[in-house]
User: What shape does this take?
Amino acid sequence: VEAIKPFFTVVDFESGSFEPADRSERRYLSDLKGFFYFSEELEKAMERDNSLVYEVHRREVPLQAGHLQHCVTLIHPGDVGGEFYMTKGHYHRVTRTAELYLCLCGEGILNMEEPGGAATHIRMRRGVWSYIAPGWAHRTINISRDEKLIFISVWPGDSGYDYRTIAQKGFSNVFVRAENKEFSILRRS
Ligand code: S6P
Ligand code: ZN
Assistant: This one.
């Protein structure tokens, strides 16, 4: 395993600031083509204003088993035709790798699914520490109207990403705004 020196990051649980970040990614509506369920609504929203949906700020460590990748994700509040702002979601390329998500702030859903079709979700709020078992695809969703959803992630260095399966098939559970309850789940046919 590649030798590096110990280090630390300072995370602010309310603002989600993560210092120093080695790399930051920002995903706008236009980056989420093919991921939101209501594609026509997405086109219209993009024309109005190509809003920022989520940000990922990370430390860089070697992409090797033995090292632990880690980052903070901030998902802004909003929806596309009722479907909440969310991450693209992915499987790990190396399917034997698990992941941990600790929610720092906000209200959300961790949506998970197996290639066999099994699906489940965990309600994220401050302090909820979720274990994403090996082989499960994962996507996070901000169900608040006005607050950011902020969480930190830790995963094996060699996990990699598979976004293609999600881009092609989507998740079978689509989380949308509802009257008088936190959300409803629409089943993708
Ligand atoms: C990486 C981990 C998270 C996500 C991040 C953004 O294994 O699951 O750090 O990368 O929350 O989501 P996505 O689906 O765009 O990578
Ligand atoms: Zn992951």
